[in-house]
Amino acid sequence: MTQHDKTLSQDTLPQALRSAGFHGDIDRDTALLSAMSTDNSVYQIRPDIVVAPHDSADCAVIAAVLSRPEFASVAVTPRGGGTGTNGQSLNRGLIVDIRRHMHRLLAVNVEEAWAEVEPGLVLDDLNDQLRPRGLFFAPETSTSTRCTIGGMVSTDASGKGSRVYGKTSDNVLALQIARPEGLLSSNEVSPEWAAPMLHRAEQAARGGRDAFVANTPRLNRRFTGYDLERACPPDGRFEWWRLFLGAEGTLGLITRIRVKLRRIEREKRLLVVGFDGFRNALSSAAPLLAAEPTAIEVMNETVQKIASDSGLLDGLPPALRAEPDREIAYTFIEFNGNDPAAMAARIARCRKILADLPGADTIHQASDRSEIKRLWAIRSGSVGLLGKVDGPARPVAFVEDCVVPPENLPAFVDDFRTLLTRHGLSFGIYGHVDVGCLHFRPALNIDSESDRDRLVAISDAVFDLTQEYGGIFWGEHGKGVRGAYLRTWIGEEAYAALQAVKRAFDPEGRFNPGKLTGDDDTIMGIATTPFRSFNAPDGDPLDRAFRCNGNAQCLSYAHSIPMCPSFKATTDLRQSPKGRADALRQWHRSRAKGGADDQLEADLLRTLDSCLGCKACESSCPVQVDIPTMRTTFYEDYYSRHARPLADRLTLITERMSGQIKAVSPILSPVWPLLAAIGQRLTGTQDLPSRLAQRPASSLRLSYEELATTSLPDGTVLLVQDWFTALFDAQVLEDIADGLRALGYRPRVLDMKPAGKAALTLGDREGFDRMAHALSVQLVRAAETGAPLVGLDPAFVMMLRQDYPKAGFTVPKVVLVQEFLVRELETGKTFPSVLYDTPLRLLSHCTEATAVPQSGEMWTSICQTIGIKTETPATGCCGMAGLFGHQSRHQSMSATLFNLSWRTQVETDQPVAATGFSCRCQASRLAGRALRHPMGLIAEALRR
């Protein structure tokens, strides 16, 4: 065991940090280490320890403690959103998780148009906070929902609109960094202790500046990272902080950033153009620049087909949707400005240019900002979908952000495509043609040694090709392990200067070692850095864990987006689909070797226990990393070797016996409060329903046995219950039945049979199979009557739709009530109407909102037909999720989630309805408000 291993395997470092006043989190949890081992690249490096500082002072403590001789061998690497495509934030030693706590907007100066932020602040979060002030931070990345400002600074990130707004480095005004001696800010007078370090850095930068300038092409997407040119401006100043822009954490810890802001332009337009082929779409860029657009981006036919097959292009106007025999390459052209007349002139000029371009078949213009946002989301969402392909080879990001002069782009792309075709590779292409940057993602199987050899060969060839066309190998996504090419690209003299800058700030070479600069034997290479496992065996139930590519849409900061609630509540990477997938892969490998890592299993149990099972990951993740389903597989294996907790056994018994409990509910009702109290103590829960629902009226009930002998009149709707609503929520049955009657239908409720939700969640596959088989048989019998089947609770309906087919059960379609009613309207059904002026606020269950994203629009259409105004605000998870919100160990997370997006929606004077049983329970217990199902309010309105 090396001294490094001894240092990190004992409590020495954590104790030293605490003793020095570190207030943040310190973790060696194996699930978290697995999560921190990967990013959005094909690489995997397992760290030894993770710390999450609370503020700049904590970062200074880290720097001070690690400067001690006993910790000299500990590598230190900061990590933001972990969206890097080239292993930028992967390393051994200590990972500094900046995002978890350091995500505050510290100051805004509206007059001077700047803001100061902590580096863990997410880009969209910053811009959402700036929007009311009429300002924004310009670099717009496709990962804007989860990438951090610190990560953008460290990689000098770019994106849409960079031709006008510049890269991140063009929009930073000052930095603060943490040193062992304290904090150093570039916009304050430097303390005396910093003078020797800054002097050495200046000497190195000035000595290599001319060679640096001579070897960097003059492009819009300029080369940065140890930017010797701008660090030493012609006026003789030394702006040391510019060396950190694009340095990828190799010079130290950034703790505070002053960013330049821009005024939000009043006018915005977007043209989406469908071309008959990618070559024509690509060739359109140069002539379109004459119309002065803010951005021009393209998608080739491969990306279009993947997006179309996934339903993402359903948001496009019908004329722009591809047909089976008609592939389309898309060009997105955005215009921004303040003068409507000038905007109209630019649009007119653009249309005139398009009229003369070959292959421009269809043009759609969007002026509404919400529509423009939706259309751009199609482009950005398509990136993640590139990983959603069948087979062991999948598109990989490793040569995807080369930049060449725009006039050289068509020829460069031709040669690039020829190269990939010669290697027999398929590929997707998208990107920013206005600045000469296209993203190629060749499909490789990283588990295959021959494909790893191809990765190296293609990287070498593309590097040469980029130089041939006067471009830059790293134009947008940073360098990471591709820094191995830096010495050849920048030249020996300039590279020596970069090495000297590194030594000035990091003499021990401990900050993100192996990246960008260093000794030849320490630099990581694209072939020598460990690769992550790419595929599971065919048919393996954990296949989706291996297919997680780190795109990390599950790490979106927005509270109104359901995925992923446990991560939103904690900002802890292990509490996310990506983190759980990483840990499941690690566990899978240990089990495949015939054993089980006890510590990993214990840590994995904890992180899976905090998953709310909402299934938003299955619906919203581009590659459908379905954590609840994979959790079932883990539990099934684990509990075949370990005893189940008493609480789980009681839950399984209750579900299995729920039909019998319902049958004797009149007898049990008087003693149910006592039974519920005993159950809470035995199961570690609280706020369980204290009353049993009474059986519905006999005129409403219909047993499955009666289906064969009962003639159902026209207009009959069969209502299907889950066990929770059947036992505890008589109101929802009454509301939906009343609403259907008021609309002219004859509702009947089928006897409840448990669907096996708890059994599936807890890994009791045998118990689930029994219940699922029994329910499936009865639902088929019900469907044979020809009457529509409508489920009472969205989570139950989605289980039948998502989980039953995966488990091999075929069931007739059970629809949500709004799906049924919209279908009726489409067939010409008319509903009675009322005058109802008070808007109804309607809140959807999160599982429903992600699996049926048009659900809110359906309710709006129904209510509008009846005469009821509605609001359907976007909300995340309410924090209940079945039993999760009742379990005592989850109370803090449950309440946090409710407060994030539900409380403000519920605490209002206007009528509020919620579609989910869990959501109504949560609103009652945490906000003291009894919400109704929307059908109940519709029934009341029609009665009035």
UniProtKB/TrEMBL annotation:
Keyword Iron set for record: yes
Q: Which residues form a coiled coil?
A: none
Q: Which GO terms describe its biological process?
A: lactate catabolic process
Q: Which Gene3D superfamilies match?
A: 3.30.465.10, 3.30.70.2740, Alpha-helical ferredoxin, Vanillyl-alcohol Oxidase, Chain A, domain 4
Matching SUPFAM superfamilies = alpha-helical ferredoxin (SSF46548), FAD-binding/transporter-associated domain-like (SSF56176), FAD-linked oxidases, C-terminal domain (SSF55103)
User: Record's PROSITE patterns?
Assistant: 4FE4S_FER_1, 4FE4S_FER_2, FAD_PCMH
Q: What molecular function terms (GO) are annotated for this protein?
A: D-lactate dehydrogenase (cytochrome) activity; D-lactate dehydrogenase (NAD+) activity; FAD binding; iron-sulfur cluster binding; metal ion binding
Q: What is its EC number?
A: 1.-.-.-
Give the cofactors, semicolon-separated: FAD
**What keywords sit in the KW lines?**
FAD, Flavoprotein, Iron, Iron-sulfur, Metal-binding, Oxidoreductase
Which residue ranges does the record assign to the 4Fe-4S ferredoxin-type domain?
602-633
The source's domain of life comes to Bacteria
Class of enzymatic activity (EC top level): oxidoreductase
Per its UniProt record, what InterPro entries does this chain match?
Answer: 4Fe4S_Fe-S-bd (IPR017896), 4Fe4S_Fe_S_CS (IPR017900), FAD-bd_oxidored_4_C (IPR004113), FAD-bd_PCMH (IPR016166), FAD-bd_PCMH-like_sf (IPR036318), FAD-bd_PCMH_sub2 (IPR016169), FAD-linked_Oxase-like_C (IPR016164), Helical_ferredxn (IPR009051)
Domain FAD-binding PCMH-type, which positions?
Answer: 43-264
Give the PANTHER family listed for this entry: D-2-HYDROXYGLUTARATE DEHYDROGENASE (PTHR11748:SF119), D-LACTATE DEHYDROGENASE (PTHR11748)
Indicate what this protein is called per its UniProt record. Putative FAD-linked oxidoreductase
Which species does the entry assign this protein to? Roseovarius halotolerans
